[in-house]
Automatic annotation (TrEMBL):
Organism superkingdom: Eukaryota
Transmembrane portions of the chain: 21-43
A single cellular component GO annotation: cytoplasm
GO-annotated molecular function: scavenger receptor activity
Protein name: Scavenger receptor class B member 1
Broad class of where this protein is predominantly found: membrane
UniProtKB keywords: Cell membrane, Disulfide bond, Glycoprotein, Membrane, Receptor, Transmembrane, Transmembrane helix
Similarity remark: Belongs to the CD36 family.
UniProt-annotated location(s): Cell membrane; Membrane, Caveola
Membrane topology: Multi-pass membrane protein
Amino acid sequence: MQTKDKPISNTQRNKKATKRIIVEVVIAFIILIPAIVLCIYWKQLIINRIFKTILLKPNTEGYDAWLHPPTTITRGYHLFNITNPIEIVTNPTSTTVHVKETPSYSYSLSSTKQDVQWSTDNKSISYSIHRLFTRHPTQFNPSFVNDTGVFLDLVRAIFRTQFQAKAAQAFYDLAGMEAFPHRNAVEQLEGFTSDLFKSIQDKMTGPNTAKSGFIYRYNGSRSYNYTIKSGLMEKGQVLAFASEHIPFSFSSPDYYGFPIYDGLTFVPMLFDKPSLNIFQPDFCRPLNVKFNKVLSMFGGIEVHEYVIKLVDLNQCNDVNDINTCPELDKLDISQCISASLPENTIFLSKAHFYGSSNETIEQMNISGFTP
């Protein structure tokens, strides 16, 4: 027995097509709506997760990360060996100083925050920073301990400033006739003693006074004391600073007229901060850092590269805006090294005077710096 298929009418065909379209639209909405919502709020979700991680309050994940940062700090120190000391002594006014850079002496730096005290409202936090330098286990070549040369004797330079341009015989009787002594390079960092050092030792302040040495003075000591804001959007802004080594301190958040950060606390929302002012306690002043570009490092992690600017805080067109301060080739940090030093004795510059004008480099009369 045969049956004939009934022809499907256009109306039925249209109904089926309509139902199919409706089902497809519903499925599309089920898929697309969460995707649209996720796209809209994805950035905020990520930001909220980051904020939860970096929130600086007692007994939080952010506080634990702040106390024990997961990063490892490596510092490389370079000294400059003066290669023509006899010529300088023979004819000091016209002789160009020739220097040769030492290898990089690499040290691992562990910075821990101690003596932590919260304000009663948890809006600020006071702490001291302890720094411990150790020779880098792989980058510090054991043979470096045998390196010698003629290096600038900071102790002699500080002592020399107590005399006139032409020093009296008493200076040489106390400091020695040898203006450029030959010394061990690593000891200039890790600590050394001399007869001259012993004569001024009782004038030294702070811990670690048994020797002289850049790393030695800070190693293992409670170097600096900060009070910072702990609020989410202003975290790390410095309210007060004091040091065991130098008389410089301040206790007002408006001391500079613009926000400064401690450089030891993660600053949130970096993409909204093309320029930052980081207080550098070793030099008793804030240094301006300006965003330069994004780099891919550490296996593909994107990091921000900043360029340091040395600016004159006393010549700003607007005291509340560090970007209006003129940029300098070098900064006088004499008073940060010692309160007894006269001005323009010790300067801070970019490494090898990078970015300095030709006039500044020519005035230095030093050969061997390669920017």
